[in-house]
Amino acid sequence: MESSLNAARRARELDEVRTVVVDVLVVGLGVTGAGAALDAASRGLSVAAVDAHDLAFGTSRWSSKLVHGGLRYLASGQVGVAWESAVERGVLLRRTAPHLVAAHPYLLPLTSDVGPGEAATVMTGYRLGDALRAAAGTPRSLLPGPSRLTAARALALAPSLRPHGLRGALLSWDGRVVDDARLVVAIARTAAAHGARVLTRCRALALAGDGARVRDELTGVEFDIRARAVVNATGVWAGGLVPSVALRPSRGTHLVLRPGALGALRAGLHVPIPGERARFALVLPQADGRIYVGLTDEPLDGAVPDVPEAPESDVAFLLEVLGGVLDRPLGRDQVAGAFAGLRPLVDSPGGAGGAGRVGGATADLSRRHAVLRSPDGVVTVVGGKLTTYRRMAEDAVDTACPNAPASRTARLPLAGAGPVRPGLPRRLVLRYGAEAGAVLDLMRREPELAEPVAAGITLADLVWAVRHEGALDAGDLLDRRTRIGLVAEDRAAALPAAEAALYRT
Ligand SMILES: Cc1cc2nc3c(=O)[nH]c(=O)nc-3n(C[C@H](O)[C@H](O)[C@H](O)COP(=O)(O)OP(=O)(O)OC[C@H]3O[C@@H](n4cnc5c(N)ncnc54)[C@H](O)[C@@H]3O)c2cc1C
Fold it and tell me: What residues does the FAD dependent oxidoreductase domain cover (predicted)?
């Protein structure tokens, strides 16, 4: 079956889901819900999956994009979480998404804030992480080991570092997804290729063990989807549908810097947070040249918003921490944008795997996922992280459908994985993997689509997203299929092109 998602398919499948009983209804199409839809569909189950907004509308597009081996969990004694992360990182790098996930280097600059004892402790941690990599079967060729660099080498990789007092740097490697929202789209399309009906702009109003009341947000029409099992994968909104699920959302903010803001940066940075032992802010260079700087961890009070705001206090904090290692600290006017996401942390000492804590700082809450069955049979899967989405999805479907065949997703390549036609432009290969050839063919058939829209994005990317990636409006195109919208001026400049792309099809 075709993996393409578009308005015509949505309309057709929306009609179908009213008349059938599906094996599994998945609510929420972030990384977890898209993963659950794929897990169930690839076991041969019939699936409907809905999101109130768009693919990756929630937390999944606001991550740091690290596919990490769980080193920090090891440091806090959560060996099971660390192991699961290392295994899932290997699955993504080696089998399921080698076109979207790759190793990326990070430097920890050895400034006066990092004493020799702390540096030695961190290096021991990196070596343990490397041992975990090996035990999880990920080869060094895909994820190199750690090393110590001289100050001169560190400055060659990160010229904006303050040379004065720099004793060198610790170099480590971890996985990174080229774009978290694109990962979700790839998972959802792979689910669609296995027959899942993937329906955006469909809000679940009420859940039960045998289905949901749903509203088509484009027409306002309400209808029922009947299902043999229901999986609630609505992240920080999960408690709104299943009140027994208690969460303690925590806000994480990133800054967005323009390309070149930190010189010719060739590695990410772990920046020591003054006054905190072994806690670091992250400088994360992106494929489009922009740089993200993150990240905070603040408990959220009050209602959960659709799109969280990044407060000025977070921006000021991150600028100050970053300034601690830069030769020329950045000013507020050099911050091109900022975004915040809400971690769906489980507020239960038992439900989150035992390491959760009620009433403490959110930074200390367990990152382990929980699969919870409510009395009426709805299975909620929550917590965890992007890196472990596949395992979370497998656990959720195992619980929701105990008689189903075993999960196949550890060996199932996502849409775009596979051999790439030789001689294709690098930009397209990085974005589309094995589908790059098809995008190039589109540009050849319709040459006017080669028109640039923003750095690294052409009209062809937008038209492809409308025809194959389920983009239904300009917001889908600018804020999720591409990340142009992270900088307000770039978004405004690209808006006419996004609208033109929607009318071309
Ligand atoms: C700042 C930050 C940085 C992070 N960095 C990393 C990282 O580097 N690496 C990593 O592995 N993890 C990271 N994480 C964790 C990771 O991003 C999350 O654990 C993960 O994205 C959660 O995905 P989800 O699918 O469970 O939830 P979401 O992505 O929030 O998806 C929930 C979906 O449910 C939909 N929905 C809500 N209500 C309804 C309804 N009534 N009907 C239908 N649909 C509904 C929403 O529209 C949304 O699309 C980070 C998290 C944050 C906040």
Answer: 23-357
